[in-house]
From TrEMBL:
This is Alpha-1,3-mannosyl-glycoprotein 2-beta-N-acetylglucosaminyltransferase. Initiates complex N-linked carbohydrate formation. Essential for the conversion of high-mannose to hybrid and complex N-glycans. It comes from Petrolisthes cinctipes. The cofactor is mostly bound to the substrate. The keyword Transferase applies.
Length: 638
């Protein structure tokens, strides 16, 4: 379409099929609306902008109150500090359907291909029916829309699945109802922004009782999911869930949710947590770093205990101090608890979360070689997690949803510096691993009990999508975990050794599709790779990296290894142990006649297999739903 000016400007009124109750509402809204609001939105190379005016029906001129403006363009920072570019991506703005007041606005950086589309999709899913939604491209954003385009199309967007990567686009619609306006500007040679002006009918559906603090809150906050859904609101407070089999194990254990100002995430996380079997509402304590009124009001609504620990500093340093303060607070507040469970505001738990902890928590105070119980699986990535009843142990950081003992917390506090050494740029969980775990291991499930769904601006988007968003999650509760006593050190080592001793050696290139033979009975395989120290003393993980990547496992760090051995479950019946020799204490099991695998010794053919296989893993399974975009971007069929 290059060279041809194609400007599409549509004013359409489409009823979305299937949205029954809301259709009815919209009709009613049209018939007897009192007030209207005027919306101007623009989208272009230089940013985006939005103005909302409210008109009063009586005299049809602007009411004094209620004008909202938000815009983002190139800004001169002043004093010769240069020009600040606008945020690039797709913006979502939500207006209150009765007052046209702006209640949510955010730019999703979809100029990036990976992961952020999932966050946009998450927010769309949590906007209540009836809300007025305004979307616009700021500079560029269609490129990263990906799978989210399907939800947008289902919500009534005509263009979302068909736009080229550089298009400028605006869409004004009523969630669950009709489109007010949708425009797209797809000619990349025109650099002027396009503007849209529409009149919005405001809803005259009676307001739910404002005396109820919940609806008072919903007046001013968007993307809150079932909290503000007037058609099918979440019950408040959430119902008490059923107990789990070992409920008494959870009674003395506080559940600490660390949170800040992202109250959309926090509400979802808390509701999921509080309705998970085994949850004890009065054991939950939210510890706030930043505590805006919107968050504390929400916690009052949910009747959840909270406390605020104001922290100073910037970015990582601030987070580091915050977690230090959190651990201090927990040590002082719950001195007699055997353990505490920690969860971040943007981590969703599986229905089996508490059942899993109820069966494993005792290990913390029983086995001194264990320092944490993780609910998140360090190794259970897509294709490698099959059995919800299997639990493992290995060297790993505390991760999303973990329990540590109060003894460990006290130990931690004594060595935790007020400020991190400027050389220690690592995050707090890595710091705990490096400086406090002292060779101890953690317990974690083969299939995860948590998902880290929140996506921050600093997230490594590719890894997030490749590894974490696609990770399987246990979707039912009350899973009976097998052989938990075997996780204590001696039985574990004994069983591990005996399994390795009886395993079958694999000796071909791990990147060949035929590397792991297909079997019809439970089979253990062992693969020996060379793991040596580099001249300066650190272990050289290069061979480990390639061997793990061949099997689509996490090879980026040594997280998840038990004494130099990575356990990979390639199918329900097949387990492959990657043994690093001579470093691993199990390395002696590799017989002399089998040369440990070394990437540097590969033939050109074998090296090509490695490259091809890893490339295949990194692309397959990543679903590109707006294929048109991919084709245009790469100039060929993807
Ligand atoms: C929450 O508050 C209640 C009432 O003050 C108290 O009994 C309970 O111990 C608190 N729970 C936590 C985890 O702080
Ligand atoms: C549990 O341990 C017993 C004895 O070691 C073993 O026979 C059984 O297969 C184990 N069960 C599972 C599910 O691993
Ligand atoms: C299982 O595999 C073995 C060897 O590959 C084969 O002889 C046997 O028939 C298979 N059994 C079933 C039930 O498929």
């Amino acid at each position: 379409m290059s060279g041809v000016i194609r400007l599409v400007l549509l004013l359409i009124e489409v009823m979305v099929m299937g949205a029954t109750s809301h259709d009815h509402r919209e009709q009613k809204q049209q018939q007897n609306n009192h007030d209207v609001s005027g919306v101007s939105v623009w989208s272009g190379d230089s940013g985006w902008g939005l103005q909302v005016h409210r008109y009063c029906q009586l005299n049809h001129h602007r009411c004094n109150e209620g004008m909202e403006v938000t815009r983002d363009g190139w800004v001169d920072a002043g004093e010769g500090r240069g020009i600040i570019p606008p945020a690039q991506g797709i913006t979502i703005t939500v207006l209150n359907q009765r007052t046209a007041q702006l209640i949510f606005s955010r730019v999703f950086p979809l100029r990036l291909y990976w992961a952020h589309w999932a966050d946009l999709d998450w927010h769309m899913k949590h906007i209540a029916p009836g809300r007025i939604v305004i979307m616009a491209v700021s500079v560029s954003g269609i490129y990263g829309l990906r799978h989210a385009s399907i939800r947008l199309a289902a919500l009534g967007s005509l263009f979302a699945r068909h736009l080229p990567p550089t298009a400028h686009w605006t869409w004004v619609f009523i969630m669950g109802g009709r489109t007010i306006s949708e425009t797209a500007h797809i000619n990349t040679h025109i650099h002027l922004p396009h503007h849209v002006h529409v009149l919005l009918p405001l809803s005259s559906i009676p307001h739910p009782p404002k005396s109820h603090s919940r609806w008072q809150y919903c007046e001013n906050h968007g993307a809150m999911g079932g909290l503000c859904d007037e058609v099918s609101p979440d019950p408040l407070p959430p119902p008490i869930p059923s107990p789990v089999v070992k409920q008494d194990q959870l009674t003395p254990v506080p559940v600490i949710v660390t949170a800040g100002k992202r109250h959309q995430y926090l509400y979802h996380t808390l509701i999921t947590l509080m309705t998970t079997p085994g949850a004890i509402h009065h054991n939950i304590l939210v510890i706030l770093g930043d505590a805006p009124a919107s968050t504390t009001f929400l916690l009052h609504l949910l009747n959840v205990n909270y406390t605020t620990l104001p922290v100073y500093g910037h970015q990582n340093n601030k987070l580091f101090r915050y977690y230090r303060a959190v651990f201090n607070h927990v040590a002082v507040t719950f001195p007699n608890a055997p353990a505490a469970i920690f969860l971040d505001e943007d981590v969703e738990v599986s229905p089996d979360f508490f059942s899993y902890f109820s069966q494993t928590l005792w290990l913390l105070n029983y086995d001194p070689s264990i320092y944490c119980i993780n609910a998140h699986s360090a190794t259970g990535f897509r294709g490698l997690a099959h059995d919800p009843s299997t639990v493992l142990r290995a060297r790993v950081q505390v991760s999303w949803g973990y329990a540590i003992s109060l003894n460990f917390i006290r130990e931690l506090i004594t060595i935790w510096p007020e400020d991190i050494n400027h050389k220690d740029t690592v995050l707090y969980d890595a710091w705990v691993y490096l400086h406090a775990s002292q060779g101890r291991e953690c317990v974690f499930p083969e299939v995860s009990r948590t998902r880290h769904y929140g996506i921050g601006v600093n997230t490594d988007a590719w890894s997030t999508e490749q590894w974490f968003l696609t990770q399987p999650l246990v979707t039912h509760s009350h899973v009976h975990l097998s052989n938990i006593t075997d996780l204590t050190l001696k039985p574990w080592q004994h069983k591990f050794l005996s399994t390795l001793q009886h395993a079958t050696f694999l000796t071909t290139n791990p990147c060949l599709p035929t590397f792991v033979p297909s079997v019809n009975t439970t089979t253990y395989f062992i693969f020996c790779y060379a793991l040596n120290r580099k001249p300066e003393g650190n272990l050289n993980y290069q061979n480990f990296y390639f061997a793990a990547k061949c099997l689509n496992a996490w090879g980026v760090s040594e997280q998840g290894l038990h004494e130099g051995v990575l356990t990979i479950r390639t199918s329900l019946l097949t387990t492959v142990y990657l043994v690093g020799t001579p470093y691993s204490p199990y390395g002696y099991l590799c017989p002399k006649h089998i040369l440990p695998w070394s990437y540097d010794e590969l033939s050109d053919d074998d090296e090509q297999h490695v490259v091809d296989r890893i490339r295949q893993h990194e692309i397959e399974g990543i679903i590109q739903n707006n294929m048109q975009v991919a084709k245009l971007q790469f100039g060929q069929t993807a």
